[in-house]
């Protein structure tokens, strides 16, 4: 079984959001187009409390229950089978979807016989990268759909280096037209 995993495609990470990816919205039509090619469509959300040490490093974003924490209305979110919430505590960052607090992602994937995980979303150099590295550590054949991943581009070469690190760890870098 193969699953599409959408990392943190939330309003606060889109260009007009509190912690924007400059071109984050360009991945939405790609995701809408490929969702039907997978047995499961899963997603993660940053789901931060109002006060957390995470906001000492980052602007306030994706606060539980706010519009900024929701999926954009342009995303066909009704096709998402399960959402994994992360960063829910006062002292955790929750970069990886494998740190979800509402359900164990690795167990969920195994119980549903998922052996191939195709990862997309925001942001390449933080949450996508950590989710990819943890997927590999947990033994899943991991693909990164490069044209469906965007970054914050906080530092020069961060996104490029993230893709190199994911590939070096064992991820297959692909594009949506090859699925």
Can you lay out the helices and strands and say which pair or pack?
Elements (H helix, E strand, L loop, with lengths): L1 E6 L19 H8 L5 E7 L35 E5 L18 H7 L4 E7 L1 H14 L3 E10 L7 H12 L2 E3 L5
Parallel strand pairs: 1-2, 1-4, 2-3, 4-5, 5-6
Helix pairs in contact: 3-4
Can you put this structure into words, describing what you see?
The radius of gyration is 15 Å and the shape is globular. Strands 3-2-1-4-5-6 form a 6-stranded parallel sheet. It has a single domain, classed as 3-Layer(aba) Sandwich (Rossmann fold), CATH 3.40.50.850. The protein is built from 4 helices and 6 strands. The chain has about 180 residues and is α/β, with parallel strands linked by helices.
A few lines on this structure:
With 179 residues, the protein is of the alpha/beta class.
Which labels suit this protein?
single chain; 179 residues; alpha/beta; Rossmann fold
Would you state the CATH class?
Answer: Alpha Beta
- Residue runs with pLDDT of under 50 for 5 or more positions: none
End-to-end distance, in Å? 14 Å
Question: What portion of residues belong to β-strands?
Answer: 15-25%
Q: How are the strands of the biggest sheet laid out side by side?
A: 3-2-1-4-5-6
Shape call = globular
Q: What gyration radius follows from the Cα positions, in whole Å?
A: 15 Å
Q: Which class best fits the helix and strand makeup?
A: alpha/beta
Helix content: 10-25%
Indicate the mean pLDDT: 97
Quaternary structure type: single chain
CATH architecture descriptor name: 3-Layer(aba) Sandwich
Number of E strands = 6
Main β-sheet, in a few words? 6 strands, parallel
Query: Looking at CATH, which topology would you report?
Result: Rossmann fold
């Amino acid at each position: 079984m193969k699953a599409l995993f959408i990392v943190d495609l939330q309003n606060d990470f889109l260009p007009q959001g509190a912690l924007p990816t400059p071109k984050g919205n360009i991945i939405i039509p790609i995701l809408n187009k490929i969702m039907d090619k997978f047995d499961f469509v899963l997603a993660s959300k940053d789901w931060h409390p109002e006060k957390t040490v995470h906001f000492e490093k980052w602007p306030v974003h994706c606060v539980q229950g706010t519009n900024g924490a929701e999926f954009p209305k342009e995303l066909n979110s009704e096709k998402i089978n399960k959402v994994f919430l992360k960063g829910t505590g006062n002292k955790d960052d929750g970069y990886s979807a494998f740190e979800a607090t509402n359900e164990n992602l690795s167990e969920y994937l195994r119980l549903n016989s998922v052996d191939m995980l195709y990862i997309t979303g925001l942001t390449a150099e933080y949450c996508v990268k950590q989710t990819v590295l943890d997927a590999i550590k947990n033994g899943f054949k991991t693909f990164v759909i490069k044209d469906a991943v965007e970054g914050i581009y906080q530092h020069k070469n961060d996104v490029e280096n993230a893709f190199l690190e994911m590939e070096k760890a064992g991820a297959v870098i692909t594009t949506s037209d090859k699925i």
